[in-house]
Amino acid sequence: MKKILLSTVVWLCLLLPGHAQERTVSGKVTSTENGAPAPGVSVLVKGTTNGTATDVNGNYTVNVPPGSNTLVFSFIGFKTAEAEIGGRTIVDVQLDPDITQLSEVVVVGYGTQIKQDLTGNIASVGGREIQNLPMPSFDQALQGRAAGVFIESGNGKLGQGIKVRVRGAASVSASNEPLYVVDGIIITTDDLSSTDAPTNPLANINSNDIESIQILKDAAAASIYGSRAANGVVLITTKRGKSGKTSFNVNLMKGFSSPTRKAKWLDGPTYYTAFKEAFDNTDAILQRDFGEDFGSYMYGEPGLTFDEVLDYELGDWDKNANENWANLAYQDNAGIDQIDVSASGGNDKTRFYASLQHSDQKGILILDRYKKVSGRANIDHRASDKFSFGLNFSLSRSVNNRLSDDNEFTTPMQLLALPPVQPARMEDGTLNKNTVYFNGLIKSENSSFETTVLRNISNIYAVYQFTPSLSFRSEFGIDILNQNEEIWNGREVDSQTNNINGGAFSSWTNVFNYSTNNYFTFNKQFDQHNLEVVAGMSFQRSERDQTEATAQTFPNDAFRRLASTSVITDIGGDPTDYAFLSYFARANYKLSNKYLLSLSGRVDGSSKFGVDERYGFFPAASLGWIISEESFLTESQTLSFLKLRGSMGLTGNAPTQNFAPLALYGANTYETQGGIAPTQLANRSLKWENTLQTDIGIDFGLFNDRITGEIDYYVKKTDDLLLNSNVPGTTGFLTRFINIGELENKGFEFVINSQNLIGPFSWSTSFNFARNRNKITNLDGNVIEGGYLNRAVEGQPIGVFYGIQYAGVDPENGDALFYINDPKNPNRETTNDYNEAFRTIIGNPNPDFIGGLSNTFSYKGFDLNFLFQFVYGNDVYNGGGKFQRGNFVYFDNALQEDYENAWRNPGDKTNVPESRLFLDNGDQESSRFLQDASYIRLKTLSLGYNLPRTVISQASLESVRLYVTAVNLLTFTKYDLNDPEVNTDYLSSNIGQGNDFYAAPQIKTVSFGISVGF
Amino acid sequence: MKNLKISILIAGMVFLQAACSDDLELAPQNSVTEEVALDSEEGVQSLLVGAYDRLADDDVLGGWIQMASDLIGTNNDVNWAGTFTDPGDMWNKNMTANNGQAEVTWTEAYETINVTNIILAHLDIVTDPDERARIEGEAKFIRGTVYFELVRLYAKDWADGNPAANLGVPLKLSPTNLVYDPAASVISRSSVSQVYAQVISDLTEAEIKLPEDNGFYATTWAAKAMLARVYLQQRNYDLARTKASEVIETGPFALVDRVDRAFNTDNNTSEDVFALQVTNQDGENALQTFYAATSFNGRRDIRLRAEYENLFAPGDERLSRLIYFDASERRLSGKYKDQFANISVIRLAELYLIRAEGNLLAGGAQVGPNTPGDDLQVIRSRAKTTDAPLNPTIADIMLERKLELGFEGHFLHDIRRREATITQRGSFPWNSDKLVLPIPQRELDANSGLQGQQNAGYGI
Description:
Largest sheet of chain B: 2 strands, antiparallel
Shape of chain A: globular
Strand content of chain B: 5-15%
Radius of gyration of chain B: 25 Å
Strand content of chain A: over 45%
CATH topology of the largest domain in chain B: Serine Threonine Protein Phosphatase 5, Tetratricopeptide repeat
Structural class of chain A: mainly beta
Number of strands of chain B: 11
Largest sheet of chain A: 22 strands, antiparallel, barrel
Number of strands of chain A: 53
CATH architecture of one domain in chain A: Sandwich
Radius of gyration of chain A: 32 Å
Oligomer: heterodimer
Number of domains of chain B: 2
CATH superfamily of one domain in chain A: Carboxypeptidase-like, regulatory domain
Shape of chain B: globular
Helix content of chain B: 40-55%
Structural class of chain B: mainly alpha
Distance between the termini of chain A: 46 Å
Strand order of the largest sheet of chain B: 2-6
Number of helices of chain B: 18
C-alpha cells in the first residue's frame, strides 16, 4: 500500500513538469553573515506552487514555468529574499539574517511556534548570548536579558542557589522558583544542600550546550504545565546537529576574578584610637550615672585600664599590629580555566551534536572552587519519511569546594569582624588561636567541604508521522542526580564544630527523576484556516534516597574520611518521593494569517495533593490579532508589524513538601531509646495554589522591522495560597498548611530591539524594562516572619522590612534616636529608649523596576557587546550592622566612615551616634542598617575579533575568534557595604529577602579566550 | 492499518495512565501517619520517650530555661558577652515581645506539653495497670514541671499581687488532634493560681503513680523534689520542707564526696534526683555551649564576675574546683565543661537548702532531723569550706543557694522569692515588669485568645 502511494507521488512529480515548456534554474544560497552555505532554504517560484529546498551545500535546482521570473527564498532566521531570474540559469543568492526575529521558531510547551503567531508572552534568550561567560551557571547569565525576570545571586560563593522570579513572587510558603524543562523533560531543581545555604542544581548544565532558552511568563504560554507553572516555566533546548559538513570547534578561555566591591574597615592604629574613645565615653557615662567606673560596673573590678579590658576581651593582641583581616578572606588566584570541544554535523538521515567541557573556576573567597566536566551527545535519526527518533545524552560531574554559611564564624567573610590589633599569625608563623572571635583561617587550613555531583540528564524520543498533518511523539527522559557532600574538620576547628578530635560528615543523595511525554500533534491548513492541535499525557516520578552520617574523633588529623572516625553522633537523611500524572491539550487556530486563537488546558494529579483534592485543572485562552496584515496597514511604510494579543488562564503551584497533607509522627531519641513525636498537622484537602493571570500585549515592528518591540501589561492574582499558616504554639505545633490567602502581582514589561545601523558597520540595541508590584491582599491575619526584619503581611509586598525606625542622633548628647511610631498616637516624636519605639514598615526588598540594555557593534571582523543591567528601588538590610557599625559597642572591626562621622561634641550634626563600648546606642536592629540597594551594572562586556577568512583558510580553518569577556566589570550604586546584589545564604527564603550578613561580594571576572572552528 | 496503529498507541497510553495513577499513592519514608503511630501500646511508650526528648530540648530544660533565669536574675554574678542579642536583652532587662529565645522556649515547652497530652489521652491502650500508672505518672511529671517553669518565667511571681487575678499561662490539657480544630486552639491565659493548681495536681499524681526506681526516668522522688520547689516558690514553706525532707530522708540519694563530681558526668550521680540524659549521639547541653571555654568547645558567652568569686571563702572547693579561667583569663563556671554531660535538673543539695529555708521560715515543729544550720553545714562541709552558722539567717541560706546552686537556673526565682532588688545593668526590684518574659508576639498574633493579655511593659 505504502509503495503504491509513494510511486504515485513520484509519478505525479515526474508528470507535472511535462505540461509546459519550462527552464531549469540552479544556484547556491549563502548567508551574508558568514558566507556559509544555507541548507534547507525553501525556494519558490513566485506565483506558482513550484518549489524546492536547498541541499546541505546550499545548492538548489528548480523548474521555472514560463511567465515566471521571480524566485522567493525563505528560511526561518533569514529575511525572505526575492531574485529576478532574467535570462540567467544560475541564480546565487545571499540571505540576510532576520534581525527582527519575528519569524523565529520559539519552543513552547510540547511543541514549537513561529514567534509572530504567539498569543502568549515568552522571553527568548539565544544560546549565543550566554556562551562563554565565565559564570558557573546559565541562570546567572540570564540576568538583565529577559524582561520581567528578576535574577539574583545571593553572594559571590560559587555553586550557590540563585533566586529567579518571573513576574514577581506568587507564593508565600511554597516555591517561587520557575519550573525548569530541558529538552521536554522536567528536571530536578530541589535544593539538596545539607547546610542552610542552598546550592544550585542548574550549575551542572553546560551553558555552551544551550541552543535557546524560553521563559514562559503568562498563562497562555505556561498553563500547559499546569500545577507547577505559576512561577513561569524555563524551557531549555540544547544544540542539535545540522546536516552538512562536520564542524569542529575548540574553545579555550582563561579568566581572572576579583571582588566587585569592598567596604573600608579601620586599620590597627585607628581601631585602637576608636575603641579607646568608645571606652572613655562609656566610662564617663557610668561615672556620671552610677558612680562606678568601667571595670567596676562591667566586671566588678574597679580601676581597669582600656588595655586591660582589651587583654581580657580580645586575647592575643598587639597595639602595633595592623592586620587587614577583610582582605584575608580573598584568594589571589581567583579565576576560571575552561576548555570546550564540540562537533556537529550529519546528513539527511542522521544528525549529531557532541560536546565536552572542562571548567575549573576558583572563587574570590579562600578555598571556594567549582570544577565541572560535562559531555553531551544529541543524535537525531530519520529512519523513514514517517519515523524518526533521537537521543539526548548528557553527563556531568562537578566538584564544588564549599564554605561555611554566612552566619558562621568560620566563613571567610567573617574574618573582617576581627580587630586589626590582633595579628592573624603569631611570630612563629602559626595562626593566632586566641582572637576575640574564632580565627576563620584556622578553618581554611584544617577542614574541607566538598560537594560532588554526578548527573545524567538524558532522553530518547520517537516521532511517527501518520500523515503530513498528524504525528505522534513519545519521549522518555531521566534525570539521575547523585550527590555526595563530604565535610572534614580537623581538631583545630573543634571549638566551632563541637567535635572532639575532629569530625566528618557525609551525605549521599540519589534522585532518580523520570518522566514520559506522549502526545499527538495535528497541523492542517484549510484555505485560510490553520489549525494546530496538541494532545497527550505525561507522567513524572521522582524518587530521592538520602543517607547522612555525622561522626567525630579521628586518631589524628591525617585521617579525614568518615570511616576513620570513632563516634557516630548523628544519622540522618530524607528519602522522599513524588509523582505527577497529567493530561494536556492545546489548540491554536489561525484565520487568514491575522486572527489567532489558542486554547490550552492541563489536568494534573499529584501525590503531593491531599486525597480529597487529587486532580486540578488549569485552562487558558488567548487571542491575537495581527493588525498589520489588515489591508489598511499592509502598505504602511512605518509600521511593518503590529499584533495585539490578550490571554487569561490558570496556573498552579504545588507544595514543595511531598507529604504536606498528612498528619505525621517522626522518630526521635532520648538517651539511647527510640521515641516518637508528632511533627505535622493534617489537611486532607490541601491542594495547589491557583494563579489567574491576565496579560494584554502588543508586538510591533517599525521601519521594515528594524525596530521591534513588545509591551505587556499583566495582572497575576494568586488565591488559595499554600500557606504555612501560624497556629498557636500552645497546640504543640507552629504551623499548618492550609489553602488560604491571596496575593497579586501587577506589572508591565517593555522590550525594544533596534537595528540602528546595518551594513559593514552594524549597531544594534536591545532594551528591556519591567516593573512589578507585589501585594499580599489576604493572609487570614497571619504574620509570617523571615530574615531579620522581613515579614509577609496583608496589604504589603512580600518580605517587607518591619522594624524600628531610626531617627538619627540627638545633637546635644550623641544618643541614637528612634521614632516612637505608636500606632495609637501617630506622630513624629522620637525617643532614645529603643524599647519605647514601635515597629513599622521601614522598607521593601522588592525592586520597583528592573531591566537591561544591551548594545552590539560589529565592524569587519570585530564585534563588541555590552550589557548594562539595573535594579532599582529595593532595600537591603544589613543584619551584620549591629556588629559592624553598632556604636563601637563591641570589638568587631568597624567601617571607616562610621568612625569619621561619629558624634563627638554637643551640636554635632551626624547620623552616627556617639561611640560607647558595651552600651547600646544605636546598635539595635533598626532602619539605621537599611539602605537603598539600587544599582546599575556593566554585567557583561565582550570584545571579539574574527580573523579574516583569507588568513585562516590557509591553515584549513573555518573560523578563529579571539575574545575578551568581562563580567560585573563596573557597578554603580549608593550601597556602602560590599555589593548591592546580596541576600545572605543562611536566611534566603520567599520572605527572607534583601539581607546582608557577611555575604561575599559578587565576582568580577575578566577572561580571555580563543575559539577555533575547523 | 493506520487506524490499527493509532488504536495500539492510544491503548498503550491508556494502559500507561492506568498504571501511573496508582503511583500517586505514595507514603512518606521517614515518618508515619497518626493512625500507625498510636495504634499500639508500644506507640504510647515511644511517645513517652519522645516527651523526654522534648523536655531535654535545649530551649526547654536542656539549658535555656535555666539560663533565662540566671541571665535575668544575675545580681552582679554573670555577664553576657555573646553575640546573640536575645539572651543579651534578657541580661540587659530590655527584652521585647519579639525576643526569639522567649519565643522558642514557649513553643518548645508547649510542644512537650502536647506530647504528654497525647499520651494521657491514649492511656487506655496500655493494658497492664502498673505500666499504665507509670506512664501516666511520667507524663504528668513532665507536664507539671513544664507548666511550673512556664508560669515562673512568663508570669508575675506567686506573691506579686493576687495570683488568682494575675495572668499565668494558657493551660492546654487536651491533645491537639492532628486533624486540626482551629476553634479548640484558641485559649487564653489562666490565672497564676490556676496554673500552680494544675502543676501541683500533676506533680502530686505523679508522686503517687511513679515508682521509686525507674532508671533515669522520673521517679516518685523526682516528683516530690519538684513539688518541694513549687511549694517553696509559693512561700508554702511547710509543704516545701516536708517534700524536701521526704526525699532526703527516705530517698536513695547521697551527696557525692567532692562537689565538682556532681557535674560533668555521663551518668546520673548519687545526688541527682532528676537529670536529663545527654549522650554523644543525642541530646543537647546548652549550658555547656554557653558557659564552657572554647577549649571545651564552648562559646564562653556567659562569664562570671569578680563579685561572684568574692562571695566564697578561701578554700571553698566550689571556688577552687568549679571556677576556672580560660586562656584570656575569662572567669568561667566549671559546672559545664563536658559537652556530653547530663543536665542535672534537681540534685540532693538543693533539697537540703529547701528544707533549711522551709524550717527557718515555716515556724512550728521542725521537719526532719536537721536544723537549718545542720542542713547548711551538710552542704558547706562537702565544699570543705568554713562552718555554717549555728543559727543561720535567711540571708545565710540565700547566699548558700547562690554558692551551691549558681548557674543552675535559680537566680531569678530566688530574687523574686526573697523580694530582693537586682543592681546590675540598672536597678530592678523583684516585681519589676522587666524580669518577666514577654508572651511571644507570634502567639499574640496566632491566638486570638491572648488578645490584650501581653505582660506589662511589652507594648500592645
